[in-house]
Amino acid sequence: MQIKHKTLFLTLIMLSCSLLLILWPHNRAALQSLYYKEVVRTKYVYTRPPPWSSSLPVIYAITPTYSRPVQKAELTRLAHTFLHVPNLHWIVVEDSNKTSPLVSHLLQSTRLNHTHLHVATPLKFKVRSGMKVKPPRGTLQRNLALQWLLQTYTANDSQQGVVYFADDDNTYSLQLFEEMRFTTKVSVWPVAFVGSLLYESPKVNSSGKVYGWRVLFDPQRPFAVDMAGFAVNLKLILTKPQASFKLTDVKPGYQESSLLSDLVSLSDLEPKASNCTKVLVWHTRTQNPLLRKNITGFADVIEEI
After folding, report:
1. Residues in the chain with pLDDT < 70?
2. Signal sequence span per UniProt (predicted)?
3. 86: Cβ–Cβ under 8 A, 6 or more apart, which residues?
4. Which residues line the annotated binding site for Mn(2+)?
5. How many CB atoms lie within 10 A of CB 232?
């Protein structure tokens, strides 16, 4: 049905432009240009995702996710961003004992290149109300995605790519993905609305090298960067299979450092986003919907929301 609607839409555009060409022949060149631009634009929108290119490194976007009322909404929004990014492979890892139909159906409907995995976080590591020290969320899921990469590729493969940890609640500029695509080792950039600041950022000197961190929380961390603020070259992951996020024996806020310390030193970091002077990713959070429970007389006729 959708294909019929798209075909009808294109047909109407062609007929309208043809009629204008007949009625106003003196504007033929301008109208022809308008016609071709509209047809190209429309086909471009309807053929998402962009065609795969063998000359571009692949962006492996790793997204841990868990069941909640806004899960589908957040994944849908993220998918609509990814549909504009060439050569992107989306690795979605559910915090669950099995993959859910909701996430599976969503991934299939996007037509994005994707891998769907799952691993449940043990109860003792789950965030619960009243906890003084909250355990890190998404650790096992990110590590499983890294293991999938190690099992799928080897360091000797010709596959070029970059690995990015794209949480489902953030907002991403499309420019960010082109900034990270040709990362040599590890690239870094600012992240907005994080760490009780308007933005956190690497400090970059006049030589274009990272020498510290503009952060409020524990600036002495080896890598005081948010999860959304760095990307890693795929080859580096494949040549250092021991690198992973640590779930135990790591202080709060040190998840990123636990991985990056296994991969690079501070001098290896590559500042992006105009030497870390631009914000291209925002740590946004969706407000939980106000839902009343135990209401009678409202049948659930919609299975997935």
Report:
1. 1-47, 128-134, 297, 299
2. 1-29
3. 49, 50, 51, 52, 53, 56
4. 169
5. 25
List C-alpha distances in Å: 43 to 76, 83, 236: 22, 14, 38
Residue 134: helix, strand or coil by DSSP?
coil
pLDDT in tens, 164-204: 999 999 999 999 999 999 999 999 999 999 999 999 999 99
Measured in degrees and rounded to the nearest 5, phi and psi for residue 271 equal -70, 130
List of residues 6+ apart from 234 with CB closer than 8 A: 57, 58, 60, 149, 153, 159, 160, 161, 162, 163
Model pTM score: 0.83
Instruction: Name residue 192's beta-bridge partners.
Output: 199, 282
Of 74, 94, 256, 270, catalytic: 256
Active site residue 178: no
Question: What are the phi and psi torsion angles at 123 (to 5°)?
Answer: -55, -40
Total H helices, total E strands in the chain: 9, 12
Structural domain boundaries of the chain?
58-188+227-273
Q: What's at 181, amino acid-wise? A: R
Q: Binding site, residues?
A: 64-66, 95, 137, 142, 167-169, 283-285
d(CA 150, CA 144): 10
